[in-house]
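quick one, 293 residues, struct below
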Amino acid sequence: MSVQIVTDSHSGMSRQQAEELGVMRLSMPFTLDGVDYLEDEAPDRETFFAKLSAGASMSTSQSSPAEIMALWDQALKTHDQVVFMPLSSGLSGACATAKILAEEPEYEGRVFVVDNGRIATPLYRSVLDALEMAEKGMSGEEICRELEASRSEMSIYVAASTLEYLKRGGRVSATTAAVGTLLGIRPVLHLDVGVLTGFKNPRGLAGAKKTMIEAMRSDLETRFHDWYEKGEIHLLAASNGSPEMVEKWITEIQAAFPGMEVLYAPLSLGISCHIGPDALGIGCSCVPAALRK
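---
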């Protein structure tokens, strides 16, 4: 039985990377200064972040049911089943919409929607895991069940450059954002089981990096100790900063966790609408049970 893996652009996977891996990818929509874009048709990243930093209005939305079903229909022309991997249901209604669509008679038993609480690099890692399972001959239903069973076996920390964009999204008050700006606060958020929450509010970039690396080390040594000891855990990184900023951040992660490979993916423009420019992230994802040695 052949299984087509499908994800969306919030995975950080580029269209070219998806094509090379044989993955189908849905380009997610957002609105910038009243103009609607798809991730693949948006302005270049430099122009996008210049507009964002200048105070451009922004919002994100779901793909239409017609767009989702058209992609599934295309996949089912060449494959028996589809495993669809959108961003976490805790961050968007897109996953719930897809699950409802998958119950339609033409998709029932053929399309399986994964809700394992992932976004950005953790979602990218899950796509790679799904590909490995498909290569082992697992069915779409088995892959979906396996990925959702490992939902809690992931953690990621993200440092925003400012509280301004969290204020715009209603996550912090205007007063908190103003005080935070004066104090040079660089908020660190935690994504766990599909929901993004505040973690700590260190000052400056160096403080934010230290906070995230210490939190990641603590997770590996406590919560994920058994996987860490067996080498059954993946180290992850994310950012929407400049190439120089990204390179330095990955180097710092490698120095903090010698011997561990780091999977990196850029934060999508849709995610960046809510978190702002120059964000950094670090995380981990455990190897699903079906792929453990």
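The CA atoms of residues 105 and 148 lie 23 Å apart.
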